[in-house]
What does this fold into?
Amino acid sequence: RKEVEQDPGPFNVPEGATVAFNCTYSNSASQSFFWYRQDCRKEPKLLMSVYSSGNEDGRFTAQLNRASQYISLLIRDSKLSDSATYLCVVNWESNYQLIWGAGTKLIIKP
Amino acid sequence: EPEVTQTPSHQVTQMGQEVILRCVPISNHLYFYWYRQILGQKVEFLVSFYNNEISEKSEIFDDQFSVERPDGSNFTLKIRSTKLEDSAMYFCASSENLAGGNTQYFGPGTRLTVL
It folds into this structure.
């Protein structure tokens, strides 16, 4: 069964705080991992790909743990504009098909 | 910055009617995709398309659905006889290649409402 699981939230976080999300996936053969963000009623937008060694892009850090089959996203110094739903996305047997988590809703409060 | 475009932004149709949703992928991209998202639910993969043929499709993509690249720029999704449960946001995406993990770029979506 194709499963990508996320805590739906919402996470209510004060501006400036650090917040972390996890996501678990069921297919140990998955090779590509991504975090997308989706604003209400808009298209998903790529936030970052997740590499085996972990990667950082400004305030955002992504980690992959293959042994436990989870990926994480850390947001430091959160801003009001970070409020969105964060979608964990994993490829399946092939690279064509991406399987999506239901998303974690983040609300940053002033 | 190049982007995926979709038309129309909103389509309202009667149950049983055929609809065609249109997409213009990013021009140097070779792989094209359709996804749907029912309101409040997950994004769901429908189909991928490469080299003028379907490369993969999900269980959702049954005989009611078809895709086509009628010319060098458009990529269309046809739903032959719409049902109420086809009401959703339909996103088109494209990617340059499968190397580097297949980063897909999404269009703004077409909201399909079946009455």
Q: What stands out?
A: The mean pLDDT of chain B is 92.
